[in-house]
Amino acid sequence: MPVTTKTGDKGTTGIFTGERVAKISPIIEANGTIDELGSFIGEAKHHVDDELRETLETIQRHLYSLMAEIASKGQYKKVGEEEVRWLEELTARFEEEVKLEGFVLPGSTVASAKLDVCRTVARRAERRVAKLVLEYGFGEGVLVYLNRLSDALFMMARYIEWREGKITYAK
């Protein structure tokens, strides 16, 4: 299948359901932001240790499934409670080690800065998906996953800083 199809030259694109929607539709805005998040996570992988790299690759796989759910208007659901619980456990594991003492200035290391960018893009994706949930009635599970993901990314960044003795508080 060729990459260049020219089917989007008039401002529409195909989605999982077979429909064509405007490239400015909330569905495409949400998926575009999730795709952007996956790319930033890909960049972050080059600045973390092997364990976190594997974790980030798992998250990237989940993001593809989330995009399929959005593009199918909620008909395709592969990421659910198990993946959300995994993120919650991941976040809790880092919280057990890193005892935060207040608000943190992001980016005390290159790796944590990359993860902080990922976190903020995850929050933007969450806002885009919230529109789908509140106005179109689908994407609830995606919204929950993105919310937990931003928490996990925040704690991964803090864990890296804590491990290197470089957490900077906003005191």
3D structure, described in words:
The protein has 171 residues and is mostly helical. It has a single domain (12-163), classed as Hypothetical Protein Ta1238, Chain: A. The protein has 5 helices and 2 strands. It has a two-stranded antiparallel sheet with strand order 1-2. β1 and β2 form a beta hairpin. The radius of gyration is 17 Å and the shape is elongated. The termini are far apart. The model has no long low-confidence stretch (mean pLDDT 96).
E-strand count: 2
CATH fold-level topology: Hypothetical Protein Ta1238, Chain: A
For the residues shown, what is the average pLDDT? 96
How many helices?
A: 5
Instruction: Tell me the count of domains.
Output: 1
CATH architecture classification = Up-down Bundle
Major sheet attributes: 2 strands, antiparallel
Element order, helices and strands?
A: EEHHHHH
Could you name the CATH homologous superfamily? Cobalamin adenosyltransferase-like
Give the C-alpha Rg: 17 Å
In the CATH scheme, the class would be Mainly Alpha
Strand order of the largest sheet: 1-2
Keywords:
two-stranded antiparallel sheet, 5 helices, Hypothetical Protein Ta1238, Chain: A
Task: Map the helices and strands.
Blueprint: E1 12-14, E2 20-22, H1 26-44, H2 50-71, H3 81-97, H4 110-136, H5 140-163
Antiparallel strand pairs: 1-2
Helix pairs in contact: 1-2, 1-4, 3-5, 4-5
